[in-house]
Automatic annotation (TrEMBL), chains A, B:
InterPro entries membership: Arg_biosynth_ArgJ, ArgJ-like_dom_sf, ArgJ_beta_C
Residues bound to substrate: 159, 185, 196, 281, 404, 409
Gene Ontology cellular component terms for the protein in this record: cytoplasm
Protein name: Arginine biosynthesis bifunctional protein ArgJ
Role according to the record: Catalyzes two activities which are involved in the cyclic version of arginine biosynthesis: the synthesis of N-acetylglutamate from glutamate and acetyl-CoA as the acetyl donor, and of ornithine by transacetylation between N(2)-acetylornithine and glutamate.
Residue(s) at site: Involved in the stabilization of negative charge on the oxyanion by the formation of the oxyanion hole: 122-123
EC code: 2.3.1.35, 2.3.1.1
Family under the similarity heading: Belongs to the ArgJ family.
Length: 409, 409
C-alpha cells in the first residue's frame, strides 16, 4: 500500500487514560518494519501482579501466543513486551528463539524471571522477527519507564489501524476505588499482512488470578468475540488483563464484592471492541446486529455472526440498501433453528418484515433515512424462544478491497 | 445496477447440446421482471421419466424448493417450469399459492397431475411472484415445445449471469449409448437480489429414481457443493436430474453397469459447477484449492472451504499476491486438525512453505508469474493423514462490491 490510510469516518478520540499504580510503561522505535514511529512497548508491573489472558482460537497461532499460554499458568506477571510490524507467526524454530530471546532480555531488564514476561507481536506473517532489534532498545525502554504513558502505548501497538484505541473506568471494591485502563489495536481479524486484534487491560485492583481469568473470559464472549470485520481469525489475537493490586483493596473472590468491577471491566472491553469494529478495514458504517427470539443465547449469537459475516449483507449496508432478503438468507444459512414463517426483520427500529412476509403498508421512508447514517441497527426476531445476542461489524466496501487486494510492498 | 454486466473474462462458450429423446422444451417472455428477453422455461418429459433432486441447505428456503421436496417423493416427473426475475422466497402464503397456481396450470397444459410438475424460481426475494404472468404464456409455451431447445433454455433461466452455461456427455449402459445434457445458472450463492444456483440435467437413460438420487447426491458433493463464490447460501439452490428412459437401455441398479453413466454425469456436473465459479460476481480469476494430508476427506473439504471463503485470501488473489500467510490463517480458522509445524503451501505447483516455515532458497519468480494468470491453483499439505479435497472459487474484487453494493433499482 502506498501512504497512510485515511482515518476511519467512525473514529473516536482517544480518552485520557490516567496513571495507574503499579504499571510503568515506555515505548521506542526499534525499526522492526516501520520507520519514524514507535513500534515497541515495554510495560513493567509491580511485584505480585496477577494476570488473565484469552487468545485466538486459530489452530495455527503465532509463537508469542504459544509462549503466553504457557507462562499464564503461573498467574503472575512482571512485564509485557509488544511489537508492531512483525507477527512472528509461521516462523518455525526461529520464531520460538525470537520469543525466548525477547522474554529473557525483558526479564533481565526488569530483574525477574522470563516466565513472568508476556509477549505479543503483530504485523507481517512468515518473516523472522529480528528480536535483536527489540533487545537493542531494552535499556532505553527501561530508562524511560513512567506511569503516565498510556497514550504512547496505545500508539506504539498499531499496525493498519487508523486511530488509537483506549478506554478507562473506575469501580469500587469493598469501598476502595480502583481504576481500569485498556488499550487495543485491530482493524481486520487479520489484515494486509499485518493486523490482528490485541488488547491490554490494566487495573490497580488486587484480584486473584483465577477470578481475574473467569471475569475476563466471560466479558470477552460478549465483547471482543462479538465483533467481526471479515470473518477471518488472526493467528495472534490476544487479550491480557493485569491486576497490580496497588489500589489497596483486599483481594477477594466473593462475586458480590466484584460486581462493580465486573461492570467497569465489561464497559472498558465493550468500548474497545466497538472501536475495533469502527476501524474495520474500509469501514464506512458501524453495524449493530441484534438477534432475539432464538432458541438459546448461543444460537442467537451464531445467527447474528452469520448475518455479520455475510458479504451480501455487508455490501448491501455499504450500498445503503435495507435488503432484508439477504438478511433472511443469512439467518437460513446459519444452520440454527429458524422458521421462515415466523421471522421478523427490523432496520433502524422499523419492522420491515414480520411472520415471514413484508409488513402490510410498510413505509420505506424512515428505513431509507436510517441506512444513510453512520450507525446502522439491524434486529431479527426468530420467533421461537428467548435467546438473544448482539454483535457488531462494519460494511464491506471498495476500501476493504483496496487495502487487502494490493500487493505486499 | 445500470446496464448489463460485462461478460466474465473467465467465460466459456456454450457447447452444442444435442436433442434428447423424451425431453421437449420451450421458452417465453412472461415479463415477470425483465423486458425484452425470455424468462420462463417449460420442459415436458416422456411418460415414466424418473427424477432426482438436491436442494439448498438454507433453512429459509423458497416456496418452490418446498414444493419440489414434496413432489420428489413420487420419483416421477412430467414437467418442469422455471422462471427468472422473482425467486418467490419469503413471500408467505402468497408464495405457496403462486407455486400451486403454476403447477396446476402446467399440469393441465401437459395433461398430467400437479405432483408430477417441478418448479424453480430465481430472482428478487420478498416480492410476490405474479404467477398469472406464467399461466398466461402456458398455451404459447405448449405450442412451441420441441426437442432442440437446450440453447434457448440455458438463456431463459439466467439472472445476473454474464454467460449461458451448459455441458453434454455420452455414456454407455449395457452396450446402449445414452446422453446427458445439463444447463445451469448462478453467479453468486445469492446475488444482487436475484441469483441462485440452479441446474437442470436431462438424460434419455432409463434409471430407477432411487439409483438416480444416489448418483446425483454423490456427485453434488464433489461438484456443486465444492464451489463457493461468497460463502452465502441461496434460499433457492436446486439441482434436478430427469431420466426419460427413451434411449432403450434396460433399467438397472447394478452399480457396475452404471459406472460409465456415473462418470459422464460427474463430468457434466463438474463442468457446470466450474462455470458457476467462472461467472462469480466480479470474478477475474478462477481459483482451484487442493487440500491434501488432512485427517479425512471431510476434514480436507472443510479446510479447503475455509480457504475458499476467506475474504483475505480472495482479495490477495485479486491483488496477484501469493500470500501464504493468509492461507495458513485460513487453515487455522477452519477448526479442523492441523499442526502449524507440518503445514506446506504451494501455489502454481511451487512449494513456498513446508514443515511450518518458508522453503529455504524459495524463488518467488514462477509463483509471481502464476498469480498473474486467469487460473490460480493453491495446494495445502496438512501433513497429518490421507484426506484430500478440491474446491473452486473466484477472487474478491471491486466488481463484487459494485454488483452487490448498489441500490436495488
Amino acid at each position: 500500500m502506498a501512504g497512510p490510510l485515511p482515518v476511519s469516518p467512525l473514529a473516536l478520540p482517544l480518552p485520557v487514560l490516567p496513571p495507574l499504580k503499579g504499571v510503568r510503561m515506555a515505548t521506542a522505535e526499534a525499526g522492526i518494519r516501520y520507520k519514524g514511529r514507535t513500534d515497541v512497548l515495554l510495560a513493567e508491573f509491580a511485584e505480585g501482579t496477577t494476570v488473565a489472558g484469552v487468545f485466538t482460537k486459530n489452530l495455527c497461532p503465532g509463537a508469542p501466543v504459544t509462549w503466553c499460554r504457557e507462562v499464564l499458568e503461573g498467574g503472575l506477571a512482571r512485564g509485557l513486551v509488544v511489537n508492531a510490524g512483525n507477527a512472528n507467526v509461521f516462523t518455525g524454530a526461529a520464531g520460538v528463539r525470537a520469543v525466548e530471546e525477547t522474554a529473557h532480555a525483558a526479564a533481565t531488564t526488569l530483574g525477574t524471571k522470563a516466565d513472568r514476561i508476556f509477549l505479543a507481536s503483530t504485523g507481517v506473517i512468515g518473516e523472522p522477527l529480528p528480536a535483536h532489534k527489540i533487545v537493542a532498545v531494552m535499556d532505553d525502554l527501561k530508562a524511560k519507564l513512567a506511569e503516565d504513558r498510556f497514550t504512547e502505548a496505545a500508539h506504539a501497538i498499531l499496525t493498519t489501524d487508523t486511530f488509537a484505541k483506549g478506554a478507562t473506568r473506575t469501580a469500587v471494591i469493598d469501598g476502595v476505588e480502583v481504576r481500569i485502563n485498556g488499550i487495543a489495536k485491530g482493524s481486520g481479524m487479520i489484515a494486509p499482512d499485518m493486523a490482528t486484534m490485541l488488547s491490554f487491560i490494566f487495573t490497580d485492583a488486587a484480584i486473584p488470578a483465577p477470578v481475574l481469568q473467569a471475569m475476563l473470559a466471560k466479558s470477552v464472549d460478549s465483547t471482543f468475540n462479538c465483533v467481526t470485520v471479515d470473518s477471518d481469525t488472526s493467528t495472534s489475537d490476544t487479550v491480557l488483563l493485569f491486576a497490580t493490586g496497588q489500589a489497596g483493596n483486599t483481594p477477594t473472590d466473593v462475586p458480590g464484592h466484584l460486581a462493580d468491577f465486573r461492570r467497569a471491566l465489561h464497559e472498558v472491553m465493550h468500548d474497545l471492541a466497538l472501536m475495533v469494529a469502527r476501524d474495520g478495514e474500509g469501514a464506512q458504517k458501524l453495524v449493530t446486529i441484534n438477534v432475539e427470539g432464538a432458541v438459546s443465547h448461543a444460537s442467537a449469537k451464531r445467527i447474528a455472526m452469520a448475518i455479520a459475516n455475510s458479504p451480501l449483507v455487508k455490501t448491501a449496508v455499504a450500498g445503503e440498501d435495507a435488503n432484508w432478503g439477504r438478511i433472511v438468507m443469512a439467518v437460513g444459512k446459519a444452520g440454527e433453528p429458524a422458521d421462515r414463517d415466523k421471522l421478523g426483520v427490523a432496520v433502524g427500529g422499523v419492522w420491515m418484515a414480520q411472520a415471514g412476509g413484508v409488513v402490510p403498508g410498510y413505509d420505506e421512508t424512515p428505513v431509507v433515512q436510517h441506512m444513510k447514517g453512520r450507525e446502522i441497527e439491524i434486529t431479527v426476531d426468530i420467533g421461537l424462544g428467548e435467546g438473544r445476542a448482539t454483535v457488531w461489524t462494519c460494511d464491506l466496501t471498495h476500501g476493504y478491497i483496496d487495502i487487502n487486494g494490493s500487493y505486499r510492498s
